[in-house]
TrEMBL record, chain A:
InterPro entries the record matches: 3oxo_ACP_reduc, KR_dom, NAD(P)-bd_dom_sf, Sc_DH/Rdtase_CS, SDR, SDR_fam
Keyword Transmembrane (UniProt): no
Pfam families: adh_short_C2
The Ketoreductase domain, residue ranges: 7-189
EC class name: oxidoreductase
Protein name: 3-oxoacyl-[acyl-carrier-protein] reductase
Catalytic activity: a (3R)-hydroxyacyl-[ACP] + NADP(+) = a 3-oxoacyl-[ACP] + NADPH + H(+)
Residues given in the record as NADP(+) binding sites: 38, 88, 153-157, 186
Origin organism lineage: Bacteria, Pseudomonadati, Pseudomonadota, Alphaproteobacteria, Rhodospirillales
The species this protein was found in: Kiloniella spongiae
An example Gene Ontology biological process: fatty acid biosynthetic process
Record-level Gene Ontology MF annotations: 3-oxoacyl-[acyl-carrier-protein] reductase (NADPH) activity; NAD binding
EC number per UniProt: 1.1.1.100
Automatic annotation (TrEMBL), chain B:
Stated name of the protein: Acyl carrier protein
Annotated ranges, domain Carrier: 3-78
Post-translational modification: 4'-phosphopantetheine is transferred from CoA to a specific serine of apo-ACP by acpS.
Key words, A-Z: Cytoplasm, Fatty acid biosynthesis, Fatty acid metabolism, Lipid biosynthesis, Lipid metabolism, Phosphopantetheine, Phosphoprotein
Similarity comment: family membership: Belongs to the acyl carrier protein (ACP) family.
Role description: Carrier of the growing fatty acid chain in fatty acid biosynthesis.
Length: 246, 78
């Protein structure tokens, strides 16, 4: 099940905790993977761990407006075509709304939402022609529930869900599915920065009583990428240990 | 030349929309007469681009609503 042999996948944010696990899961299922992020060294390290010739390092800074189209072009050249796009790159610039700078709003929306749209748009042509495609956005539980201190981030993640549902309706008849995976709290660099107090508090609100692992997210992405998930589109799969049941 | 363009355009339309050749006349509108939906028109433009090795910008693509529009654009720009 979930065999991805012969498929190619581009994973953004592959230098990060969740993205590298996603790349590994897709690679393990047989896909050729393109790893993107800004830190070339970190990407090379992930590539070395995967090993073999089914892996390509494709650096890009997604806060540049032209980067998405250029990245898809390079991914096409490196891998021959692009079947699976995982929009996983994301960042936070947390602050109370009253203190949030315009710049922090713009940066978060640009990378988390706008770049995801542009990447999706750029890979549609090939997917439409081949009548097969998977576009998966890594959103967040807070995109649905909201979270104090994260107006910008939550808006970007909610936006990703709305964008995915709309795009899913446009392209479903062409064999392309568009879905989201919404992690709860996952142990990565992004959540390392939280204080122990906050973490403890969090755990008490998670029925599974622990943080999730990047592999928990990666397994969901592997499923949504597969042929077996062909009839699932416009959905958001919440992987959060039960902290929000939506 | 223009006849040749028209024939190639019609062939693509027949193949892509699965309509009878006789229906694909110059004045036929992809959506109103040939049963295309808006995504079909996007794909038709993609197919024209490939067949004629040209790029059809979005604002021009929006104006290609009939077979004749496509033939005219391609004849003038390729
Ligand atoms: N960890 C969680 O609990 C959690 C919960 C919900 C949702 N998420 C979402 O999961 C995704 C992955 O997060 P993570 O936890 O793995 O965080 P992470 O380890 O900080 O990874 C973030 C990734 O995004 C990339 N990125 C950031 N800004 C970029 C830019 N301007 N251009 C290109 N790439 C950029 C980073 O690449 P470089 O470092 O190479 O720049 C990095 O690979 C994010 O979308 C995040 O919002 C995480």
């Amino acid at each position: 099940m979930f065999d991805l042999s012969g498929k190619t996948a581009l994973v953004t944010g592959a230098s990060g905790g969740i993205g590298s696990a996603i790349a590994k899961a897709l690679h393990d299922q047989g896909a050729v993977v393109g790893l993107s992020g800004t830190r070339v060294e970190a990407l090379e390290k992930v590539a070395a761990e995967l090993g073999g010739d089914r892996v390509h390092v494709l650096p890009a800074n997604l806060s540049d407006a032209d980067a998405p189209a250029d990245l898809v072009k390079r991914a096409d050249e490196a891998m021959g075509q692009l079947d699976i796009l995982v929009n996983n790159a994301g960042l936070t610039r947390d602050n109370l709304a009253m203190r949030l700078k315009d710049e922090d709003w713009d940066t978060v929306l640009a990378v988390n939402l706008t770049a995801s749209f542009r990447l999706s748009k750029a890979c549609l042509r090939g997917m439409m022609k081949r009548r097969w495609g998977r576009i998966i956005g890594i959103t967040s539980v807070v995109g649905t529930t909201g979270n104090a201190g994260q107006t910008n981030y939550a808006a970007s993640k909610a936006g990703l869900i709305g964008m995915s549902k709309s795009l899913a309706q446009e392209v479903a008849s062409r064999g392309i599915t568009v879905n989201c995976v919404a992690p709860g709290f996952i142990a990565t660099a992004m959540t390392d920065v939280l204080s122990d107090d906050i973490k403890e508090n969090l755990l008490s609100s998670i029925p599974c009583a622990k943080l999730g692992s990047p592999e928990d997210i990666a397994a969901s992405v592997a499923y949504l990428s597969s042929n077996e998930a062909a009839y699932v589109t416009g959905q958001t799969l919440h992987v959060n240990g039960g902290m929000a049941m939506i | 030349m223009s006849n040749d363009v028209a024939d190639r355009v019609k062939k693509i339309v027949v193949e892509h929309l699965g309509v009878e050749e006789a229906k694909v006349v110059e004045s036929a509108s992809f959506i109103d007469d040939l049963g295309a939906d808006s995504l079909d028109t996007v794909e038709l433009v993609m197919a024209f681009e490939e067949e004629f090795g040209c790029e059809i910008p979005d604002d021009a693509a929006e104006k290609i609503v009939t077979v004749q529009n496509a033939v005219d654009f391609i004849s003038e720009n390729v």
